[in-house]
C-alpha cells in the first residue's frame, strides 16, 4: 500500500513520489461539478504500469486509418521513405505535448475536463471539453464504419461471390448486409465501454501483441506470394526533395500531428490511472512514435507486395485479406482487424467524450451515459465521408482539427507548467467560488487566447484546386481569411504557440496568486 502524508493543505494527502489525492473529507460530494467518474482517482487505484501505457498506444496506433496514412501521403506524391519520415516525425513532435499534459494525470488523478478547469474556469472547461468530445464522436463514427466494413468484406469472402451476402440489396448506397455489420460492430463497442475503464485496460493489454503479430503475418503472407516486395519501394517520389516536396510536407506534417492531437489533450483521462510519472513517460515514449513509424513501414511493404501480386496497390487491409485463398486465414485476418479497430475506437474515441459529456452535467451524466451519447452522436454525423479523399482527409479534416486542438493544448501547457508550475489546488477544481471560479466560472483570458489562436491557426484554411479548376475541399481557394493563408499549413504549431504566449501574457498579473 502506498504511504501517504498530509500536504500543506489539510484537505489533501501526498505520496512520497509527489502524487496527491484528496483527503477523506475534502471531496465536495454535494458539488454540482463533481461525480464519482470525475473525482480524483485514489492513489491505491493508480496502478497502470509502463507496459499498460505502451500497450495502450500499440492498441490505439494499430488500426486501419493509421495503416492508410502512408497510402494517403504516397497518393499525394511522396515515396515510401518520405511518407514514413513524415509520419514518424509528426508523432515524435506530438509526443511532447502528450507528455506535458499527461503529467497531471498521475500526480492528481484527474481527467482532461477537470484539468481544463484550472485554465478555462470550472464552467468554462466545457468549451474545450465539448470541442474535444465532438471530434472524438466523429472519429468514433469513422472507426465504427471501418470495423463494420471489415466484417462485411471478409464475411463476403467466406460466403463466396454471388451469394446472398454479396448480392444483397442496397440501402442508402450500401448493401443492407454492410449496414448489418456496422450495427453489429457498434453493439460490441457499447458492451465493452459500459464495463468501464478497467475493461479498456484489459482489452489493450492482450490485444496489443496479437495485433502486431497479425500485421507481421500479413507481411509474411504477401511477401511469400509476391516473391519479394514488388516495385513500390523503388518507385521514385513525384515531388523530389525540392520546393514541390516541402509544399506538401509541412501541411502533411501538421496533418500527422493532428491525427493524435486529440489525445494530446485528453491523455490525462488515461494517465490518471498511472502508478507514477515514469510509467506514463516511458510507456508513451516507447508506444507511440515507434509503433506509428513501424506500422507505416509495414503498410508500405505489404501494399508493395499487393502491387506485385495483383497488379494494383491495395491499401485497405480488409480488402487485401479478403483475397486470401484460405478460409482460416480470412477468419484470422477478420479477428485481427476487428480487434485493432475495436481497441482503437474505444480507447481513443469513447473514453474522452464520456468524460467530456459527464463534465457538462456531472449530476445527470455519468461516464457510461456519456459514452452512450457519444456512440449515437458519432453515428448520426455520417463522418465516413471525411476519408474518401486524401486531400480532404489529411488537409481539411486533420489539419483543421489539429489547429483548433493545438490552440487548447497551448493554453493547458501554459497554465499547468508556466503559470502554476504543476501545483494545483485540487479541491478548488470542484468548488464554486474557489480559485478557479474566475468570473462566474469562466476565465476570459483563456477564452481570448483560444479565440485568437484559433483564428490564426485555421482562419487561413483553404482548398486545393486541380488543373480543371475543381476544389478539393469546402474552403475558398484563397483561404477563409486570405491574408492568413500562409499560416494555414502550420495550423497546429501556430495555434499552440500563439495561444501559449498570449495566455501567459494575459495571466501574468495573476501568476503569484495562482501559485499561492
From TrEMBL:
Q: Which molecular-function annotation in GO is an example for this chain?
A: nucleobase transmembrane transporter activity
* Keyword Manganese set for record: no
* Record's keyword annotation contains Ion transport: no
Membrane topology label:
Multi-pass membrane protein
Q: Which GO terms describe its cellular component?
A: plasma membrane
User: Pfam families, from UniProt?
Assistant: Transp_cyt_pur
What are the protein's UniProt keywords? Answer: Membrane, Transmembrane, Transmembrane helix
TM annotation in the entry: 53-76, 82-100, 176-194, 206-224, 244-265, 286-310, 330-352, 364-386, 392-414, 444-462, 490-509
Protein origin, superkingdom: Bacteria
The places in or outside the cell where this protein is found are: Membrane
Task: Give the UniProt family note.
Answer: Belongs to the purine-cytosine permease (2.A.39) family.
This chain belongs to which protein, by name?
A: NCS1 family nucleobase:cation symporter-1
Amino acid at each position: 500500500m502506498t504511504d501517504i502524508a498530509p500536504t500543506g493543505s489539510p484537505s489533501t494527502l501526498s505520496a512520497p513520489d509527489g502524487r496527491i489525492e484528496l483527503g477523506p473529507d475534502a471531496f465536495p460530494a454535494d458539488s454540482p461539478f463533481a461525480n464519482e467518474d470525475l473525482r480524483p482517482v485514489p492513489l491505491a487505484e493508480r496502478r497502470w504500469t509502463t507496459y499498460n501505457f505502451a500497450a495502450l498506444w500499440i492498441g490505439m496506433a494499430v488500426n486501419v486509418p493509421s495503416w492508410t496514412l502512408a497510402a494517403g501521403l504516397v497518393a499525394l506524391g511522396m515515396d515510401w521513405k518520405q511518407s514514413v519520415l513524415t509520419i514518424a516525425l509528426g508523432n515524435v513532435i506530438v509526443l511532447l505535448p502528450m507528455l506535458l499534459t499527461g503529467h497531471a494525470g498521475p500526480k492528481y488523478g484527474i481527467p482532461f475536463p477537470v484539468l481544463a478547469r484550472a485554465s478555462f474556469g470550472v464552467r468554462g472547461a466545457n468549451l474545450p471539453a465539448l470541442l474535444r468530445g465532438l471530434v472524438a464522436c466523429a472519429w468514433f463514427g469513422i472507426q465504427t464504419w471501418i470495423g463494420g466494413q471489415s466484417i462485411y468484406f471478409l464475411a463476403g469472402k467466406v460466403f463466396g461471390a454471388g451469394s446472398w451476402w454479396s448480392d444483397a440489396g442496397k440501402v442508402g448506397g450500401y448493401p443492407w448486409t454492410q449496414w448489418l455489420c456496422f450495427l453489429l460492430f457498434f453493439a460490441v463497442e457499447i458492451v465493452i465501454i459500459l464495463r468501464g475503464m478497467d475493461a479498456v485496460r484489459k482489452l489493450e493489454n492482450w490485444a496489443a501483441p496479437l495485433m502486431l503479430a497479425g500485421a507481421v503475418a500479413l507481411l509474411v503472407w504477401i511477401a511469400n506470394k509476391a516473391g519479394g516486395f514488388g516495385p513500390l519501394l523503388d518507385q521514385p517520389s513525384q515531388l523530389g526533395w525540392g520546393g514541390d516536396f516541402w509544399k506538401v510536407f509541412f501541411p502533411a506534417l501538421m496533418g500527422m500531428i493532428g491525427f493524435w492531437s486529440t489525445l494530446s489533450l485528453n491523455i490525462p483521462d488515461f494517465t490518471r490511472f498511472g502508478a507514477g510519472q515514469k510509467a506514463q513517460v516511458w510507456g508513451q515514449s516507447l508506444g507511440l512514435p515507434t509503433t506509428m513509424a513501424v506500422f507505416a513501414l509495414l503498410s508500405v511493404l505489404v501494399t508493395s507486395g499487393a502491387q506485385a501480386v495483383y497488379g494494383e496497390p491495395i491499401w485497405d487491409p480488409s480488402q487485401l485479406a479478403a483475397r486470401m485463398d484460405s478460409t482460416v486465414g480470412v477468419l484470422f485476418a477478420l479477428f485481427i482487424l476487428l480487434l485493432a479497430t475495436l481497441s482503437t475506437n474505444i480507447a481513443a474515441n469513447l473514453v474522452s467524450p464520456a468524460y467530456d459529456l459527464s463534465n457538462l452535467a456531472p449530476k445527470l451524466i455519468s461516464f457510461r451515459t456519456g459514452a452512450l451519447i457519444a456512440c449515437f452522436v458519432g453515428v448520426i454525423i455520417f463522418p465516413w465521408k471525411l476519408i474518401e479523399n486524401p486531400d480532404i482527409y489529411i488537409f481539411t479534416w486533420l489539419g483543421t482539427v489539429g489547429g483548433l486542438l493545438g490552440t487548447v493544448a497551448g493554453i493547458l501547457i501554459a497554465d499547468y507548467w508556466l503559470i502554476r508550475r504543476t501545483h494545483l489546488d485540487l479541491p478548488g477544481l470542484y468548488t464554486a467560488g474557489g480559485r478557479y471560479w474566475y468570473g462566474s466560472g469562466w476565465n476570459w483570458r483563456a477564452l481570448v487566447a483560444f479565440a485568437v489562436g484559433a483564428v490564426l491557426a485555421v482562419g487561413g484554411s483553404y482548398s486545393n484546386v486541380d488543373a480543371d479548376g475543381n476544389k478539393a475541399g469546402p474552403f475558398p481557394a484563397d483561404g477563409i481569411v486570405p491574408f492568413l493563408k500562409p499560416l494555414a499549413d502550420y495550423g497546429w504549431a501556430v495555434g499552440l504557440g500563439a495561444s501559449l504566449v498570449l495566455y501567459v501574457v494575459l495571466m501574468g498579473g495573476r501568476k503569484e496568486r495562482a501559485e499561492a
